[in-house]
Design a protein that fits this description.
There is one protein chain. The protein is of the alpha+beta class. It has 2 domains: 82 residues, no CATH class; 81 residues, Glutaredoxin (3-Layer(aba) Sandwich), CATH 3.40.30.10. 50% of the residues lie in helices and 11% in strands. The protein contains 9 helices and 5 strands; from the N terminus they run ααααααβααββββα. The chain has a 5-stranded mixed sheet with strand order 2-3-1-4-5, with helices on one face. Strand 2 and strand 3 form a beta hairpin. The longest helix has 13 residues. It binds FE2/S2 (inorganic) cluster.
């Protein structure tokens, strides 16, 4: 019972002082974005991207610290983060696979690619491999319909996927060292 009371208190009183949580590099990068926007809140999405680039994903504490820095309500920033599907609100692997599941890809072999990735990595949508290398997510149209099926890993787009070449792509990525290694 006591833990229920404590958790409710935590929800209602969370504030993170950005000076104690964000690095000077992160703050400088965010302030640069603020300087070219009309309001501090307008830099919200760029601030989320900056933190994700540095930390891999945006934790609750990161979000609260950004909201503090931008002097905006946490709920408003959470709304921005939720709307933008490339902001990760949970820890993800070194490589995040976004497999397109929109119409053109469905008509050109999506199911086979999905099954291949799932079985090669041993994970389904929303999961991360045990070694922390890959997270598997679905995505709406990636804009590569003329060369479907498509997927995106980081900033790299892969098109005209086949069960064979998708395995090669994953094998190549698996060999890459983590930046943190
Ligand atoms: S439908 Fe898959 S890239 Fe457009």
């Amino acid at each position: 019972m006591k833990s229920d009371v404590l958790s409710m208190e935590n929800i209602s009183t969370v504030t993170i002082d950005y000076r104690q949580y964000l690095s000077t590099t992160e703050v400088a990068a965010i302030e640069h974005e603020v300087s070219i926007m009309e309001t501090r809140e307008a830099a919200g999405i760029e601030a989320l991207k900056i933190i994700q680039e540095h930390r891999g994903w945006v934790s609750d504490d990161s979000l609260y610290a950004i909201a503090d820095l931008l002097n905006m309500p946490e709920a408003e920033l959470e709304g921005v983060a939720t709307f933008y599907n490339l902001i990760y609100r949970q820890a993800v692997g070194q490589f995040v696979i976004h497999l397109c599941d929109s119409v053109a890809c469905h008509l050109t072999g999506y199911e086979e690619i999905y099954q291949t990735i799932k079985s090669y990595l041993g994970i389904d949508y929303g999961q991360t491999t045990i070694d922390g290398k890959f997270t598997f997510l679905t995505n709406v149209c990636l804009g590569g319909c003329d060369k479907a099926p498509s997927m995106m890993v980081g900033k790299q787009h892969y098109q005209s996927l086949t069960p064979e070449n998708v395995v090669e792509i994953l094998a190549d990525l698996a060999k890459q060292e983590s930046e943190n290694d």
